[in-house]
Amino acid sequence: METLWRLIQDPNMQWIFLSCTLLGLSSGVIGCFSYLRKQSLMGDTLAHAALPGICIAFMLTGTKSLLFFLLGAGAAGLVATFGIGWITRNSRIKHDAAMGIVLSSFFGFGIVLLTIIQHGEYGNQSGLDKFLFGQAAAMVGSDVLTMSIVSLSLIAVCTLFFKQFKLVSFDPGFARGLGYPVALIEQLLMFLMVVAVVVGIQAVGVVLVAALIITPAVSARYWTDKLGFMVVISGVFGALSGGIGTIISSLGSNLPTGPLTVLAATALFLISILFGPRRGLLAKRMLRLKVARSIDEEQGHKERQLEGGATL
Amino acid sequence: MSDFWILLTGSLVASCCGILGAFLVLRKMAMIGDAISHSVMPGIVIAFLISGSRDSLVMMLAAMACGLLAVFLIQLFQQSGIQSDASIGVVFTAMFATGVLLVSLYARQVHLDQDAILYGEIAYVHWNTWTLNGVSMGPIAVWLLGITLTVILVVIGLFYKQFKLCAFDPALAAACGIPVALFHYLLMGLVSMATVSSFESVGAILVVGLLVIPAATAYLLTERLSVMIAMSAGVGIASTFIGYGVATVLDASIAGCIVSAAGVLFILALLFSPSHGVIWKKWRLRRLAQ
Hints:
Chain A is mostly helical. Helices cover about 80% and strands about 0% of the residues of chain A.
């Protein structure tokens, strides 16, 4: 408990805690839209696809600045998105296989670049492989600042365009009929997801960042049927998992932030699937029992009536 | 000699994955392959902690159990109303996170570093050999992969008709009295087995590349399942050879180069396939228009 208190007072820790919480919040919010648009695994694909972008950005600039990584990964993510769309449109390959192809070939290429960087004459490369699994504790002040600003702007954009995003997520055809630029809004949502994923990579790593997009949104779906509430709950779940993950990982020396954050999100998901009102497993079981009992009662009532009729 | 063993290991991995990948691509389950390859992680670490060795039957069984558990959980969540995409995402990230956490907690006991999990260590395959009565029998990985390939060939060969029907029309298969669920889990078990035995040589993420990319390439080139399976394995083996060559020239990750080579072959098939290639289709359209 004392160590925990000391950690909370440590200003460095406070910053990292704050940025991880904000990160969880923003990816939880974005995740809701991608869940409703049935694109949950796009987050995973974008994260893997970001690796070559990050490596190329490093090779070109020679610095480990989050901003350049963001640009490189964003560009790679957009190429990956267009690649998937192009493959599914122009061949008989289905969406899931196209995702698998793009994901693994981009990642494979990224690993080739990463090993070239490691074996080559790029001096200051140590820590680049931290991107694979994420290590929030390794972040420096400027990273924290960039991450917080980006997360806050993601949330701001989502609040501004909430109505449009809602419409496009539920009924793109209707949105088109109303005259909204649906393709543009869809591209914007995809771009926001790319940004959320890239920022998340630093904290939880390429492989696990998808969980920050998917898990809080799925959990939030168990608590409400209204998109507004769902976005808020998902954001809160994301923020909670980010915060809990950072705190637990700072308690021990060998505890990586990424997996802990993901496991915290999974724990929240399990709680939701069990205890969610109406949709949760417990609520469903209760409902079934109640219905069974009322049927029993009705049956009993009828039988009594029948018996009554027989004696008359 | 090391070249020979690396190429042999790579070809075996490519054959195992290529054969199973054909079914995954046809059943639209490419991302389930991805999920399984990530989910076997905790099984591998736990088995390693128990048995203390890398190449053991315990590891194979534990990892298969984890793979099947992942498939089961994905199905369970799907049935309780979560979209299939999202349930895949939730399950595999949770299991992979558990695996990574276990590796970092027991880093001293477990000689599996995180890099090896991601990229594999195909370059060191020939160092880890197996001796029987004092006679060196070659790398353990090759034996393990050989056994896996044999099992896959035997199972698919015996139930080829059933697997084929389940791949193209599960409803008809169920109507014909084929236990579709059983074959589903059998296929998933084989995928887990292939993933585990390939794991050490090519790493967790690149297994997916070899499962999906060659199969998709073959899917663009043929209309027959048997030809597709053979082609898929062939494309995988070709990528292994090209990738290894490129990797030696560039001094880069072998597994990464193999998957990149597979990606390039896929692009070539996508553009120039005689029946489904984009360029031929355009050309045919233009000729029709004239």
